[in-house]
Each structure stands twice: as C-alpha cells, then as structure tokens.
Amino acid sequence: MINMNHIVGSHDILMITLDTLRYDVAQLEEENCPNLCGGNQWEQRHTPGSFTYAAHHAFFGGFLPTPATTRKSEHVRLFHSKHTGLKTHPNTWLFDTPDMVSGLREEGYRTICIGGVIFFTKKVPLASVLPSYFQESYWRMTFGVTNPRSTEHQVNHALKLLDKSAADERLFLFMNVSAIHGPNHYYVPGAKKDSVETQRAALRYVDGELGRLFSAMRQRERPVLCLVFSDHGTAYGEDGYEGHRLAHEVVWNVPYREFIL
Ligand SMILES: [Zn+2]
C-alpha cells in the first residue's frame, strides 16, 4: 500500500487522466499497453464524476476514483483535506489548502498542467477554471480532440518542460490525455463512427506515446509516483445511451493504476 506521507517531498508525482477511457476497453487492451500496464492489470474503480469538469474538481479536491466494491470504508485515500474532523488513515497525505494541487505547491512542488479536452483549452472563462488550479498550464490546438496525433504533441511539450527543469526540482505534472475522447474513429482506418473498437485503437496509440514521457521522468533525480486513471467512461449505444454526463455502468466504471517509475 502506498504511504503518501513517504511520497510527498521525496518523489515527483505524475498524474495522467485518460479522458473518457472505459474500464472494459482498458481491460481488453492490457496486453497491448506495455507502458501503462507492463504485465499488470487495471483496477476497476468508480469515478466521482460522470464528465470531465465534475470529475476533475473531485480529483483535485483529493477524491480519486474509489475501488468498485461495496467495501468503500476500507479504501485508503492518497489525499485528504486536513482538519475535517473525519478520521483518516496514517498513509493518507493531508493538505491544508483548498485542493491537493495547491497543497503540493505549499510543499515546494512546481505544479504543471498539460491540457487536452475542451475544459482545459482556456478559450473561455469556464475552460480556464481547471487549468487555474496549477501554477503553469498549457494548451495548444494540437493537444485537443481534433488532432489524431494529440498525445505525441502533449508528450513533446512535457519533454520540453522537463528538459529545462532541474533534475532535483519537485514536480507535480498533470496531463489530461484527449486522444481517447471522441472523435476517436480515425484510429481505425475506414471507421465512420466512434465505438469500443476505435477507442481500443486510440488507447493503443496513447500507450505508444506515453513511453517517452515515462522514460524522461525516470531520468530525473527523484523516483516518480505515477497515477493513471480515467475521469469517466462513455456509452456507445448501450441501453440506448450515447456519450457521458449520464449515469450508466459504462460511464461510472473507470480503470485505475498507481505505480512507481
Ligand atoms: Zn472527461
């Protein structure tokens, strides 16, 4: 079990949200995702939000997806607000700020956001809210859902920042990967609409790109805690539903992994 009180201060932290990735899709592609899975399995979790905006506010508030079991009280949270009066586990790191991002900043972390989907574009005030949790935030047209090479561009940008960062600087790097969100049909030649198949292809593409980011993080002085999960899934016609921001098991079940790089 991870003890966050041993991680904060001694490790860099890399948090990646694989926007819209369904749990079943992640599971089907485990063997084809050497960077994300490396022979391991995704954990099935429940997301606290059914779409990007809601879910990320929860995450930055310290509410990550919880194990998909009825034994919720046994779950040890990584992050929790201090002085709530609630009993917390000794392995939980407590922050005394409005959110865990500024909490890490108080601990000397440089906090960086590399945005992907529309809520990170900073094009309208609403789309500036999530990036504003961070000291630095970046979004380019090439990072967004319309670019079939978005992850390549996002990773390239991260590598440029890492190149200029001292190896011993404490980093909290957050990346919202947009490629798995719709439209993702262009990852299967000839496909006309998004489906489980095209999302599977998008995930394989993303895994291939993330290898470079993981290697660069491994070059840094500190070990890196990597948290990778989806913010919500999406429906491709199940029970008549399309998309997300709705309550259905294909939306609330999400894949989750935590590992040290
Ligand atoms: Zn999302």
From TrEMBL:
Domain named Sulfatase N-terminal: residues: 98-252
Q: Does the keyword Hydrolase apply?
A: yes
- Which controlled-vocabulary keywords does the entry list? Hydrolase, Transferase
Q: Could you tell me which SUPFAM superfamilies the record lists for this protein?
A: Alkaline phosphatase-like
In terms of Pfam families, this protein maps to: Sulfatase
InterPro entries given in the database record: Alkaline_phosphatase_core_sf, STM4013-like, Sulfatase_N
The terms under GO molecular function for this entry are:
hydrolase activity; transferase activity
- What NCBIfam families has UniProt attached to this entry? fam_STM4013 (NF038075)
Can you say what this protein is called? Answer: Sulfatase-like hydrolase/transferase
Provide the species name.
Answer: Paenibacillus sp. SYP-B3998
